[in-house]
């Protein structure tokens, strides 16, 4: 199968305008006859659902949380990028485009990234109109700050809760449409199957998590905005409920998955403290502006970090990357930390962390200044770890954070299944092999507010003529049976181990073998191990409780999907015989440990096709064509 | 607009603040009790007569009755609504640590005050209005003697003191809460409301508390 | 450490519930409170029993999905902290811990510690938004907003909608939640136009959901994970009274 990204012809700067000018329209009177299902109510989902409803389409919005306001976009701290050039410091759409392409290590599509930069300015306008309280200067103008990996100030922020504020804006827009009767929200519903009729996405099977009812929902188009699958590692910065089930089940119905192994590890997270830990909390990257990162020079140093004298500390980022030092990009900082931890220099009870030290900053700027900048983060740190970071170094460690990979989509954000769209982190499109800070909120919003409201109607225009599929269609019956059979299997499980046990085991395995660095050997081993784990899951799983409210049952479904997705991650990493962005293959590095990209053979996007249970997936390649930028080596030395 | 609890609260605060205002007048008038006994009798009885004959005072009196009844009725309605809103009770409840006790027990304090008012009205207001009291030297009804006799009994004084303490706590929260209900939200003025509330409550309550004690001690 | 847990178990809204005792060993002080319950559930699965259902998601104090009464207080013994951010170092070996759901007639129990807070969504639907459609918003800097006003609006907008205010209120009032949204939007020039309609509709919806009235005990501010100020409630009253007087 040839993958056609359907990128409009013409100059890079004109492509999106051209698309919008020629996209098909639907008569306002006809719009309410067209149903759209949006799964997920994060920034991408809520904004898309609200925007389509405003246009007049009938929208059904689904989320598994108890309210649409809780999706994990809410947790983003730092900010959102936009090429407004308010600071007059030389920013422009092109520069933002270039930073993003370069940050992604030249593994993303030029046209998509350019559109992202183009729409960024409008997003700020949109959010302000909705009442998002972005930081302002004393004169009343919007303020912004600079963020990792770029040389201009283009990050807009609302204290340390930018994601929350943007999400509440989108949520409120969604609630407004609900009050107008144009959106029906289904909270505490989980999508368990995609329904495909004659090759087109026509609906979903969802489970009401309160009653256990299996419901059929038909629509003219289905939008998946279900976020990333970083929770596959169990320990991650993601919410407990984040999952891959919607995209994975769509994948098994024919949607291709791309860049599956490209997963960003955030360098400043709180380390694991014990076996029962469920979450690695992220601490804003802004801490690296004043904190210095170090480990003891000596391996297995048993002293408390604060007792280690200055000359026995190894400020490894400053040593290895003098130009960027403690502000090196995420992938590089995370990898450097792992390298030191693996060398036995880690600190903390589990020897799995590095120090983030503010003593120098406190000495130079005074405690008050540091307090003013970071007091909320220091408080949070003390709440979680019980340690006062003004007195001794913070312990931090890298944690799985963002999935650049996801469902393959074309320029219109449509997957390989016509009528099935993927938005936000659920698709692969804009970040390449590594995401720049403050670009994730942007991408989710741009997809939902500005792209999908043009591309989905373009698809729906033809749907008017098509025969309406109802939930009586045999495809719904069939899909429902598949779902019910799986749930029954879980409920009748005879083993002794909980779903969490398998999830944790898989997570640990992936951290070790398909994490910050991978090798042919570790990946091959991981594939074998996952296969075994999957067998064990079939036999040894135990689900207690009934078919109504049952969180164990929910987990079992999600873990099943992770056990398949994890394997595909390994295949994806195994077949990409280069190091790029977050993907670091130990075989492909320079003598001093830097990534070596191979543009000759791997300048493409992988797109995996499900070939049935047990069969190896088929790899398709979408070549990446760079007409406007020159492929360069990323160097932060 | 639909009626709702917030509107009931507005009535609560309106009537409550009127009662607060009334207490000031009441206190000022009753300060005459602190005069030397003979002068006090004359002044006090003359003042009572003056009030009884004044049309404005008459109107205020009716507003007062309405306020007491309204304040009580709305309090009952809100209490009923509250227990409906609570649903099932907590098995183990330590919520009290996050607020002051008297703010949570306005109903209880109010009930004490209400019971006290029954006694208070029966002994003075009813006596004055609906019975034939002996006249004093100036020909005014001799309310002072009634007051004097009442406060010469220790148990009666104690009832008053307890009721006034209850009223004090009720005022302390009530005055401030009424301001909130009316919408005083600016941090600058909110501080003042608190200060004024404290001063007001202290003055009113100490003033009223002193009267029975003063009369009692004088009678020893 | 070893703990005695007394946990509210209830099959469904329509069925009666009761406190059930559990003993739990090997609890580490580094665990978060929810990880302690994870551990309990793990042992329950091992014994073939139904797990304790509870709401949680982000586990970093921002999504607002977690929330339980721990030893009689909303989100447990620490002020301004979500349940997920509470750690076991706040307890000691041998402690008895009472765990109940947030209770209010407007928050019916779904199962065990899970409750239905959809009333909050409906309060927002009644007017907790600015009617700005997507597509062609005006340039962001064309609306100037002073630093102080923005920061004040943010303070109100920071609400995570967890419902601790309702749970801890003796009247089960949602005034703090509702007023935070009203203040956030009433402070901003974009939101002022709809302020009168918004406050009336949201207050009415709050009533319709069966939440109680506010008697200004200020307990909610103490338990609120975002330290939302009770002055927003006064602000809501102000806006409401203004609407009462001015609205045609």
From TrEMBL, chain A:
<protein>
    <recommendedName>
        <fullName>succinate dehydrogenase</fullName>
        <ecNumber>1.3.5.1</ecNumber>
    </recommendedName>
</protein>
<keyword id="KW-0472">Membrane</keyword>
<keyword id="KW-0285">Flavoprotein</keyword>
<dbReference type="InterPro" id="IPR037099">
    <property type="entry name" value="Fum_R/Succ_DH_flav-like_C_sf"/>
</dbReference>
<dbReference type="InterPro" id="IPR011280">
    <property type="entry name" value="Succ_DH/Fum_Rdt_flav_su"/>
</dbReference>
<dbReference type="GO" id="GO:0009061">
    <property type="term" value="P:anaerobic respiration"/>
</dbReference>
<dbReference type="Pfam" id="PF00890">
    <property type="entry name" value="FAD_binding_2"/>
</dbReference>
<dbReference type="GO" id="GO:0008177">
    <property type="term" value="F:succinate dehydrogenase (quinone) activity"/>
</dbReference>
<keyword id="KW-0249">Electron transport</keyword>
<dbReference type="InterPro" id="IPR036188">
    <property type="entry name" value="FAD/NAD-bd_sf"/>
</dbReference>
<dbReference type="InterPro" id="IPR015939">
    <property type="entry name" value="Fum_Rdtase/Succ_DH_flav-like_C"/>
</dbReference>
<dbReference type="GO" id="GO:0005886">
    <property type="term" value="C:plasma membrane"/>
</dbReference>
<keyword id="KW-0813">Transport</keyword>
<keyword id="KW-1003">Cell membrane</keyword>
<keyword id="KW-0560">Oxidoreductase</keyword>
From TrEMBL, chain B:
<feature type="transmembrane region" description="Helical">
    <location>
        <begin position="197"/>
        <end position="217"/>
    </location>
</feature>
<feature type="transmembrane region" description="Helical">
    <location>
        <begin position="154"/>
        <end position="176"/>
    </location>
</feature>
<feature type="transmembrane region" description="Helical">
    <location>
        <begin position="12"/>
        <end position="35"/>
    </location>
</feature>
<dbReference type="Pfam" id="PF07666">
    <property type="entry name" value="MpPF26"/>
</dbReference>
<keyword id="KW-1133">Transmembrane helix</keyword>
<dbReference type="InterPro" id="IPR011655">
    <property type="entry name" value="MpPF26"/>
</dbReference>
<dbReference type="InterPro" id="IPR011138">
    <property type="entry name" value="Cytochrome_b-558"/>
</dbReference>
<keyword id="KW-0812">Transmembrane</keyword>
<keyword id="KW-0472">Membrane</keyword>
<feature type="transmembrane region" description="Helical">
    <location>
        <begin position="101"/>
        <end position="121"/>
    </location>
</feature>
<feature type="transmembrane region" description="Helical">
    <location>
        <begin position="55"/>
        <end position="80"/>
    </location>
</feature>
<dbReference type="GO" id="GO:0016020">
    <property type="term" value="C:membrane"/>
</dbReference>
<protein>
    <submittedName>
        <fullName>Succinate dehydrogenase</fullName>
    </submittedName>
</protein>
<dbReference type="InterPro" id="IPR034804">
    <property type="entry name" value="SQR/QFR_C/D"/>
</dbReference>
From TrEMBL, chain C:
<dbReference type="GO" id="GO:0051537">
    <property type="term" value="F:2 iron, 2 sulfur cluster binding"/>
</dbReference>
<dbReference type="Pfam" id="PF13085">
    <property type="entry name" value="Fer2_3"/>
</dbReference>
<dbReference type="InterPro" id="IPR009051">
    <property type="entry name" value="Helical_ferredxn"/>
</dbReference>
<dbReference type="GO" id="GO:0009060">
    <property type="term" value="P:aerobic respiration"/>
</dbReference>
<dbReference type="InterPro" id="IPR036010">
    <property type="entry name" value="2Fe-2S_ferredoxin-like_sf"/>
</dbReference>
<protein>
    <submittedName>
        <fullName>Succinate dehydrogenase/fumarate reductase iron-sulfur subunit</fullName>
    </submittedName>
</protein>
<dbReference type="GO" id="GO:0009055">
    <property type="term" value="F:electron transfer activity"/>
</dbReference>
<dbReference type="InterPro" id="IPR025192">
    <property type="entry name" value="Succ_DH/fum_Rdtase_N"/>
</dbReference>
<feature type="domain" description="4Fe-4S ferredoxin-type">
    <location>
        <begin position="150"/>
        <end position="179"/>
    </location>
</feature>
<dbReference type="InterPro" id="IPR006058">
    <property type="entry name" value="2Fe2S_fd_BS"/>
</dbReference>
<dbReference type="InterPro" id="IPR050573">
    <property type="entry name" value="SDH/FRD_Iron-Sulfur"/>
</dbReference>
<dbReference type="InterPro" id="IPR017896">
    <property type="entry name" value="4Fe4S_Fe-S-bd"/>
</dbReference>
<dbReference type="GO" id="GO:0022904">
    <property type="term" value="P:respiratory electron transport chain"/>
</dbReference>
<dbReference type="InterPro" id="IPR012675">
    <property type="entry name" value="Beta-grasp_dom_sf"/>
</dbReference>
<comment type="similarity">
    <text>Belongs to the succinate dehydrogenase/fumarate reductase iron-sulfur protein family.</text>
</comment>
């Amino acid at each position: 199968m040839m993958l056609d990204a359907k990128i409009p012809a013409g100059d890079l700067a004109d492509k999106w305008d051209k698309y919008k000018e020629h996209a098909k329209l639907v008569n306002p009177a006809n719009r309410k006859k067209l149903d759209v299902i949006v799964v997920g109510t994060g920034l991408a989902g809520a904004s898309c659902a609200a925007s389509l409803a405003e246009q007049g389409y009938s929208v059904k919005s689904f989320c598994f949380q108890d309210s649409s306001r809780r999706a994990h976009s809410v947790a983003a701290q730092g900010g959102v990028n936009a090429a407004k050039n308010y600071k007059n410091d030389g920013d422009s759409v092109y520069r933002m485009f270039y930073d993003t392409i370069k940050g992604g290590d030249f593994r993303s599509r030029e046209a998509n990234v350019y559109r992202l930069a183009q729409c960024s300015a409008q997003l700020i306008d949109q959010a302000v109109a909705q009442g998002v309280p972005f930081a302002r200067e004393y004169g009343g103008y919007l303020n912004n700050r600079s963020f990792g990996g770029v040389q201009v100030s283009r990050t807009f922020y609302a204290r340390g809760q930018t994601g929350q504020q943007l999400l509440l804006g989108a949520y409120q827009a969604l609630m407004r449409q609900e009050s107008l009767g144009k959106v029906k929200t289904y909270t505490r519903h989980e999508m368990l199957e995609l329904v495909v009729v004659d090759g087109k996405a026509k609906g979903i099977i969802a489970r009401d998590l309160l009653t256990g009812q299996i419901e059929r929902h038909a629509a003219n188009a289905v939008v998946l905005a279900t976020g990333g699958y970083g929770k596959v590692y169990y320990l991650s910065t993601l919410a407990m409920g984040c999952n891959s089930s919607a995209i994975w089940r769509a994948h098994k119905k024919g949607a291709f998955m791309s860049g599956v192994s490209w997963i960003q590890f955030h360098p400043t997270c709180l380390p694991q403290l014990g076996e029962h830990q469920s979450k690695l909390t992220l601490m804003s990257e802004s801490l690296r502006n004043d904190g210095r990162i170090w480990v003891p020079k000596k391996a297995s140093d048993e002293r408390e970090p604060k007792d280690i004298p200055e000359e026995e500390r190894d400020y490894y980022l400053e040593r290895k990357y003098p130009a960027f030092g403690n502000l090196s990009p995420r992938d590089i900082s995370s990898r450097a930390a792992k390298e030191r931890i693996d060398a036995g220099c880690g600190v903390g009870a589990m020897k799995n962390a590095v120090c983030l030290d503010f003593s120098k900053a406190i000495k130079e700027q005074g405690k008050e200044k540091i307090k003013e900048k970071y007091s909320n983060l220091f408080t949070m740190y003390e709440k979680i770890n019980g340690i006062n970071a003004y007195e001794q170094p913070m312990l931090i460690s890298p944690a799985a954070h963002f999935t650049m990979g996801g469902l393959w989509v074309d320029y219109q954000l449509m997957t390989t299944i016509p009528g099935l769209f993927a938005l936000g982190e659920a698709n692969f499109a804009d970040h390449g092999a590594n995401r720049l800070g403050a670009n994730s909120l942007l991408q989710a919003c741009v997809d939902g507010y500005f792209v999908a409201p043009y591309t989905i109607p373009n698809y729906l225009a033809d749907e008017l003529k098509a025969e309406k599929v109802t939930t009586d269609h045999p495809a719904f019956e069939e899909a429902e049976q598949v779902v019910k059979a799986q749930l029954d299997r879980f409920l009748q499980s005879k083993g002794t181990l909980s779903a969490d046990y398998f999830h944790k085991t898989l997570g640990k395995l992936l951290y070790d073998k398909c994490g910050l660095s991978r090798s042919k050997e570790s990946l091959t081993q991981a594939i074998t191990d996952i296969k075994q784990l999957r067998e064990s899951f079939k036999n040894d799983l135990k689900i207690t409780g009934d078919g109504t409210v049952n969180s164990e049952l929910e987990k079992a479904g999600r873990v099943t999907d992770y056990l398949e997705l994890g394997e595909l991650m390994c295949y994806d990493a195994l077949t990409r015989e280069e190091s790029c962005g977050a993907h670091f293959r130990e075989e492909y590095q320079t003598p001093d440990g830097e990534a070596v990209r191979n543009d000759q053979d791997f300048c493409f996007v992988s797109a995996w096709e499900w070939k049935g249970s047990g069969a190896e997936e088929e790899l398709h390649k979408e070549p990446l064509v760079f007409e406007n930028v020159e492929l360069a080596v990323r160097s932060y030395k | 607009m639909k009626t709702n609890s917030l509107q009931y609260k507005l009535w609560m605060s309106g009537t409550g603040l009127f009662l607060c205002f009334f207490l000031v007048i009441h206190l000022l008038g009753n300060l005459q009790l602190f005069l030397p006994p003979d002068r006090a009798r004359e002044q006090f009885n003359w003042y009572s007569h003056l009030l009884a004959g004044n049309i404005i005072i008459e109107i205020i009196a009716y507003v007062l009755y309405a306020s007491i009844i309204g304040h009580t009725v709305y309090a009952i309605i809100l209490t009923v609504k509250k227990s409906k809103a609570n649903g099932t009770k907590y098995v183990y409840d330590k919520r009290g640590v996050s607020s002051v006790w008297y703010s949570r027990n306005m109903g209880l304090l109010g009930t004490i005050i209400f019971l006290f008012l029954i006694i208070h009205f029966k002994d003075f207001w009813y006596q004055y209005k609906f019975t034939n009291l002996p006249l004093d030297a100036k020909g005014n009804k001799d309310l002072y003697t009634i007051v004097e006799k009442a406060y010469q009994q220790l148990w009666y004084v104690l009832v008053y003191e307890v009721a006034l303490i209850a009223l004090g706590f009720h005022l302390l929260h009530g005055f401030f809460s009424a301001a909130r209900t009316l919408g005083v939200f600016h941090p600058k003025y909110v501080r003042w409301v608190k200060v004024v509330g404290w001063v007001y409550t202290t003055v009113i309550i100490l003033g009223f508390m002193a009267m029975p004690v003063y009369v009692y001690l004088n009678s020893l | 450490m070893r703990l005695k847990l007394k946990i509210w178990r209830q099959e469904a809204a329509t069925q009666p519930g009761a406190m059930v005792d559990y003993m739990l060993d090997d609890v580490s002080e580094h665990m978060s409170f929810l990880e302690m319950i994870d551990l309990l559930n793990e042992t329950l699965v091992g014994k073939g029993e139904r797990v304790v259902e509870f709401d949680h998601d982000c586990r970093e104090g921002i999504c607002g999905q977690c929330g339980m009464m721990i030893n009689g207080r909303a989100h447990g013994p620490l002020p301004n902290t979500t349940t997920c951010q509470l750690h076991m170092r706040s307890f000691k070996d041998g402690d008895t811990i009472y765990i109940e759901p947030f209770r209010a007639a407007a928050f019916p129990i779904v199962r065990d510690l899970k409750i239905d807070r959809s009333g909050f969504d409906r309060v927002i639907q009644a007017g907790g938004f600015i009617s700005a459609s997507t597509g062609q918003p005006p340039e962001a800097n064309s609306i100037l907003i002073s630093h102080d006003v923005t920061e004040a609006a943010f303070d109100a907008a920071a609400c995570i909608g967890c419902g601790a205010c309702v749970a801890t209120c003796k009247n089960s009032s949602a005034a703090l939640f509702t007023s935070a949204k009203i203040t956030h939007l009433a402070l901003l020039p974009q939101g002022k136009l709809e302020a009168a309609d918004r406050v009336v509709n949201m207050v009415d919806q709050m009533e319709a959901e069966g939440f109680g009235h506010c008697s200004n005990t200020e307990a909610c501010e103490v338990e609120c994970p975002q330290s939302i100020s009770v002055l927003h409630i006064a602000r809501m009253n102000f806006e409401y009274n203004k609407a009462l007087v001015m609205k045609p």
